[in-house]
Amino acid sequence: MELLFPLLLVALLVPMFLGVRRQKREAEKVAHMQDSLKIGDQVVTTSGLYGTVVELDDTTVDLEIAEDVVTTWLRQAIREVRTDDQVNTEETGSEATGSDTTDAVEESAEQTETRLTKD
C-alpha cells in the first residue's frame, strides 16, 4: 500500500514529461523552418493561405499570393514550406480527377461590357 502512491505519481508524471519533450522538439522544428525561409519558397500560412516568398525581414515575410499581389505576414504565421513534390502532386491530381471543367478564357473589355449591358 505504501508503494501505490509513488507508483501512481510516476505513472502520471512520466507521460506528461514525455509529452512536453515531444512538444518542445516540434516547436524547435517549426522555429528552424521559419528561420530557414528563403526567397522563392512556396509556403502555407497558419490560416491556410498559399503563397510564394518574395521578400524576407527579421520578423516578417512578404508573400505573393496572386500575380502582383503581395501581402506581409509575421514569420510565425508560416506553418509549412511546400516541396516541389507536393506542388506537382496537387497540380496533376486536379487534372487526373477527370472533371469536365473547361479552361478559363479571359474575355476582353469589350466582351465584358457587352455581357453586362445586354439587358
From TrEMBL:
InterPro entries: Preprotein_translocase_YajC (IPR003849). Keywords: Cell membrane, Membrane, Protein transport, Translocation, Transmembrane, Transmembrane helix, Transport. Residues 89-102 have a biased composition (Polar residues). It comes from Nocardia niwae. This is Preprotein translocase subunit YajC. The keyword Protease does not apply. Signal peptide: none annotated. It comes from the Bacteria. The gene is yajC. The keyword Lipid biosynthesis does not apply.
